[in-house]
Amino acid sequence: MDLQNQTPAMNQEIFKLALSVETISVYLICCSLTDVDAPISTNNILGMWNSTESTLMECLEILTNKNIIRRIISDSDGNDVYLLTDADEWEPE
Length: 93
Known about the structure:
alpha+beta; 3 strands; globular
């Protein structure tokens, strides 16, 4: 994949949703993973996350509830894989 010519995944609309700093941080991590063509998985996010796992799970739930990310795969160990959605699919404030 030619990463130099790829459009970044991050959408500026995220800053208009009045989300917490932590939740926006998780979104930015998800975008970073997408930009390098890595799965948006709980394990990959945890490798970059600098707060508690429970805070991460809360932020992922918020992003999921607002349809900013969508869980596409989940296993019995709690390892989830997500997909970013387009901003026009997001739930408004």
